[in-house]
Design brief:
29% of the residues lie in helices and 27% in strands. The chain is of the alpha/beta class and 383 residues long.
Length: 383
């Protein structure tokens, strides 16, 4: 008997009922995560899979008894926390919505690693404590975190893998003015980027999730570049014959904490899991390839038609640099580019209409410098 799909619109509107509210924002404190793990461990089996390079425990949740095995890991990059929030929400959803979770767990079996890189998570860095990008360590397996993940893979022999990440705010969903709020990838298994049965299966899951997500965020789903790199874990597992889906949580307008994006990640997760449970067959390649490939068309802020020192007008693009300070993330505005930015958009755009500007520190008006404010008609505007 198939798992009955929930009403996803109702789920979205009632998200607060199962959202793990103790973890929020971009920086997930270790003590808050450990408290959530402790609470969830009363219902699900939690296991110490080993330790990070700095000695922090890497935990997994093991649940379900069905024949379809799904391995999920998040925060392989320590500063990419949105999918971790969504994964914890998924576990909490299973606890609260017992009827659907019972049917899912009868058909599927999971190993879920919410935080693969706890050292990077604490320090809010992409890399681990040895400055190694774990998503470039798949083939050599030099780091303890990489060895733990691949040991789980060998032990579990999963039917599907979900590789959970965040992406920068720079991405658009193709050549459009819409941000790539979520992006997906069915990784390549060879340099030629051939399509085999393994890729077709992961493409099918993505195509199905995309169809659903278009109801919520039309035009805001992107497809990640599929250039092959054997050192990347998704490519590595796909080459081994396991259908693997890369999730990339991106920007939703105004949502720098990515509390809105986490909902869309959850919806995609649940939809794919139900498709796996029901062994849904699709003809996915054309649908998958119709998802627009990511383009780098966005800046966080664009000041349009700037007039400075009576020169010709120009544009200033600003990108936020994320800095951990006192257990929260500060977004520092850095000048990324100056000139005629006709090919590009700002998540926030300010048209200065050629009015003469002053800057509190004109020496900083160059690429790579902080631009926190400007002066227009004796009024200070804070970025």
């Amino acid at each position: 008997m198939n798992v009955q799909q929930p009403n996803f619109s109702d789920l979205f509107s009632s998200y607060s009922d199962f959202k793990v509210t103790s973890v929020h924002g971009r920086y997930l404190r270790e003590k808050d995560l450990l408290e959530v793990f402790k609470t969830l461990s009363h219902k699900f089996k939690i296991k110490n899979e080993g330790h990070s390079e700095e000695g922090r425990i890497i935990s997994s949740f093991r649940l379900g008894k069905g024949p379809h095995k799904i391995l999920i890991w998040s925060q392989m990059h320590g500063n990419e926390s949105t999918t971790t929030k969504a994964v914890l929400d998924l576990l909490n959803y299973f606890l609260i919505h017992t009827e659907i979770s019972k049917s899912i767990l009868e058909k599927c079996r999971f190993i879920i690693v919410p935080v693969l890189n706890p050292d990077g998570a604490v320090n809010y860095t992409r890399v681990n404590s040895n400055a190694v990008d774990l998503n470039r360590d798949a083939y050599l397996k030099t780091q303890s975190e990489s060895k733990i993940l691949q040991s789980l893979y060998a032990e579990f022999n999963p039917d599907f893998c979900f590789n959970m990440h965040d992406q920068r705010t720079i991405f658009s969903a193709g050549e459009t003015e819409k941000p790539a709020t979520l992006s997906f990838l069915s990784p390549s298994f060879n340099e030629e980027r051939d399509i085999n049965e393994t890729r077709i299966q992961s493409m099918g899951l993505i195509a199905s999730a995309n169809h659903l997500l278009q109801e919520f965020i039309p035009g805001q789903i992107g497809r990640y570049d599929d250039g092959f790199n054997i050192n990347c874990i998704g490519d590595y597992f796909q080459k081994k014959g396991t259908p693997t889906v890369l999730f990339e949580a991106g920007h939703f307008p105004g949502d720098y904490e990515r509390e809105q994006t986490r909902k869309y990640v959850f919806i995609a997760l649940l939809k794919m899991i139900i498709d796996i449970a029901n062994q849904k067959n699709t003809d996915p390649v054309e649908q998958y390839l119709s998802i627009p490939e990511n383009e780098k068309l966005f800046y966080d802020i664009v000041l349009r038609n700037v007039n400075y020192n009576s020169n010709e007008t120009f544009d200033i693009a600003i990108q936020f640099k994320e800095v951990l300070s006192e257990n929260k993330i500060e977004f520092i505005p850095i000048i990324e580019k100056m000139g005629n930015l006709t090919r590009g958009y700002g998540h926030r755009e300010i048209n200065l209409e050629g009015q003469s500007l002053q800057f509190e520190n004109p020496l900083n008006l160059k690429e790579g410098e902080v631009l926190a404010s400007f002066i227009l008609n004796d009024n200070v505007f804070v970025i």
